[in-house]
Amino acid sequence: MSSDAPGQGKYVTLVSGDGYEFVVLREAVLISAAIKGMLDPKSQFSESRTGRCVFEEISGMVLEKVVEYCQYWYKYKETENVPDMDIPVELCLELLQAADFLGLDRPS
C-alpha cells in the first residue's frame, strides 16, 4: 500500500474525550495493542483508513501522558539505562486505567 494513503501515513492522530488532538509517530503508538488493532488495515475499522483514533473515555491530560510514554518508549526501546519518566501522582489511577484499556501492559 502506498504511504500516501491517509490511514497509513507516518503519523496518526489520537483524540481525547475532551477534544485534545495529538499527532504522534505511528511506530511509537503501535506499542498499544488496542491502537495497533484499530490501525491494522485488515481490521476494517474506520481508524485504519483515517489514521485518527478517538478515545471518548480518556481525558486530554491522561492521553497527553500516554502519548509521552509512547514517545519515551520509542526513544529508549534499544537502551539499557533508561531514565525515569515523571508521572504525576494525581494521574496514576487514570493512567493505569488507560494503560489497561490500551493494552500497554501487554507485549505488542
Structural write-up:
This protein has helices at 26-29, 33-39, 46-50, 60-76, 92-102, and strands spanning 11-16, 21-25, 52-55. The mean pLDDT is 90. The protein is α+β, with helices and mostly antiparallel strands and 108 residues long. The longest helix is centred in the middle third of the chain and has 17 residues, at 60-76. The two termini are 22 Å apart. 41% of the residues lie in helices and 14% in strands.
What's a concise summary of this model?
With 108 residues, this protein is of the alpha+beta class. It is built from five helices and three strands.
Arithmetic mean pLDDT: 90
Secondary-structure element pattern, one letter each:
EEHHHEHH
Low-pLDDT stretches are none
Radius of gyration: 14 Å
Helix content: 40-55%
- Approximately how much beta-strand content do the residues carry? 5-15%
Number of helices: 5
How do the strands of the widest beta sheet line up side by side?
A: 2-1-3
Largest sheet: 3 strands, mixed
List the helices and strands and how they pair.
Elements: E1 11-16, E2 21-25, H1 26-29, H2 33-39, H3 46-50, E3 52-55, H4 60-76, H5 92-102
Parallel strand pairs: 1-3
Antiparallel strand pairs: 1-2
Helix pairs in contact: 4-5
